[in-house]
Amino acid sequence: xxxxxxKKAAEYERPEHGPGSEDQHRSLNHTxxxxxxAWEQDNFAEALELYEAVLKDHxxxxxxxNKAGLCLAMMGDVEGALDYFDRALEINERYAExxxxxxxxxxxxxxxxxxxxxxxxxTTLDVEASGDFPSDVGNQLANAHxxxxxxxxxxxxxxxxxxxxxxxxxxxxxxxxxxxxxxxAYMDLGRLGDARDHVAAILDLNPDFLKARIRLGAFxxxxxxxxGAHSEWERCAxxxxxxxxIQAYLASLDS
Length: 255
Hints:
Blueprint: H1 22-40, H2 44-57, H3 62-74, H4 78-91, H5 96-108, H6 112-130, H7 136-154, H8 158-171, H9 176-189, H10 192-205, H11 210-222, H12 226-239, H13 244-254
């Protein structure tokens, strides 16, 4: 059954009181603004109370449910936060930020497979929504993948770490610190060609990225190009004469 056609805007008269009234509209916006101010001041309990008040009259506001979930998460109630994120997604399944927040909570709860699925869904939705344009969600996703990669690397799972870092780089190829994490993982795995490609990409974007140039020297030494390694490390030494690591690397070539 098709919906009825709405009246033209010119024929609409806002009621003086009750639903749709100007007073109610102002009250809603004011409550949301005060809630945001409380959130920014780390007053999560007050922000939550205000968001829940809005939800009593507007239960289908997915973004407000997401904000309420964030408040609960900051207050330490991860199960309550997860419930809010789940309910936000029941209203809007394509809400990328809610998927991301849900993934973080699931990861904290040790439900890693579900967390990975939620991260993946958030990534897919964000790429579809933002394309090549930057977005806050895309930045958060890239950093979340990097954090997950750090956890894998810390537990001696370099292949899984590399996969997470690669996902981060796919989302934000110009986040050079994330790309460098991928370089480190590839070096640990012995994937020297992949590591060198990413080092080259980093140095193309920022020739003064010292850690990447040091790694380039290590790569060259590893494949037997001592002269190339010496040249790169000499350049590093010129950039930072006080770095003892660089001096040690140069000394290793003379031994």
